[in-house]
Amino acid sequence: MIIKTIGIMTGNSLDAADAVLSVFDDDGGVCDLAAFSLPYPPALRERFLQLKEDIKYYVSMAETAADPLFAATVEAYTRLVAETVNRLLETSGADKREIAAIGFHGQTCDHFPPSAAGGSEPYTLQVGDPRLLADLTGIPVIYDFRSDDLMNGGEGAPLAPLHNRRIARMMQNKGFDSVAFCNGGNTGNIAVIGREEESKTSAVAGWDTGPFNHLPDLLMREYRGLPFDENGAFGRGGQIRPELLRWLFNEAALSAGGENFYLRRPPKSSDPRWYRKIYDENLSFADNLRTAEYLSAYGFVYNLRYVPPAMSLPSLYLLFGGGWKNPLVRGDFESLLQGKGVILPEHKEVFAAVYTRLPKKTTADWADKFGFSGEYMEARIFADMACCKILNRPFSLPETTGCRTPTVGGIYVLPDGGGDYLLTELLQRCGNPARPEKNPLLWSRAAKGWQKSFAAAGENV
């Protein structure tokens, strides 16, 4: 069965809406047919930043939805996404009748997974209007992908590993048995796809590594009025300061209970809400920035300690995400993989253990060089999730998110007014019992307070 879907992603950086049209085949392959992006309007970005701040103080979604800013922001955001999809269709000449669905992630406004919540009730909040998106594009929308996992005891993230496994299987034909997928976004995350050393069976592991772009970008916005350090121009004039690196490592990413995110074992996921600005006033701006940039790569390599002992560490590290475009960060990562660079004394034993497991020759390179667009990697994940929802296949596993059982993610809505849609036909052919939502919400089902809502409805949570 050949399935075409559109994946949509808008990340925490609030810089653009990315859309990709992908086709999935019976052999597990995937190919991108077209892609398109539109930048976030500055006014919409400011609205979301304000909304994210306001949401911190609301105790329920009823309170959040009552904020006049909420509905207006969600509508403007959804119209941006719809315009991105329609421009994709126009520029590619794709026939929307051949497209089964749009995989719509929504805009994350808050993420409070079990690894950050401690003893508190976890939740995740993505917003967007799936019905409006379906109506404006004329294509069914599959959405709210993280809720099912979180309500099944998982972190709700990362969702990339099983999509990365699909790509890794395609790469086996090119001679790569083990691959690490390294996303350098606002938050970093890694997925390692390989084999268990003794059984030789395939294995997958993945988790968030901690802040990546977030801390350097924060410094650039606050002290230089620029969105990021383009080509490392500002960081290049600074030095990596070990004492500041220690401070950053120990205190820049803490859970609600004060636990250091870097020290927590997977499954784990993170959110910018839990990142703290660290700035040493006794050092230059350039030194503060350079050290924050170094932390991005340092945290990634440190996290290799959590690859299960039964798995081999990969020799190939595929890079995607805007953070790797900074040559300083990429250079730091490559150096650390080779056993070079600044390593804090208290971490030398950890890094030494990692180096004993690394193959003698390791390579870090762009995913694009192997035929997979890094720019649209995250959007493609949600095209893949939409495809898997149609096929009723799990997209998160206990070993990737900590969910109790393999979990199928997402619910769907059809455009208003009825009509025949390919999605309905495919669901019937697959024997999938899913039914469209009649009254879709503007927020994820596992938003703050979902446990009380389910209890009130008589659900077993």
What does this structure look like?
The protein is 36% helix and 18% strand. By secondary structure, it is α/β, with parallel strands linked by helices. The strands form 3 sheets. Strands 3-2-1-4-7-13 form a 6-stranded mixed beta sheet. It has a 5-stranded mixed beta sheet with strand order 10-9-8-11-12, with helices on both faces. A hairpin with a 6-residue loop joins β9 and β10 (202-211). α1 crosses α3, α3 runs parallel beside α5 (130-137) and α10 (285-302) packs across α11. The model has no long low-confidence stretch (mean pLDDT 94).
What key phrases describe this protein's structure?
single chain; 461 residues; alpha/beta; Nucleotidyltransferase, domain 5; 2 domains; six-stranded mixed beta sheet; five-stranded mixed beta sheet; 13 strands; 18% strand
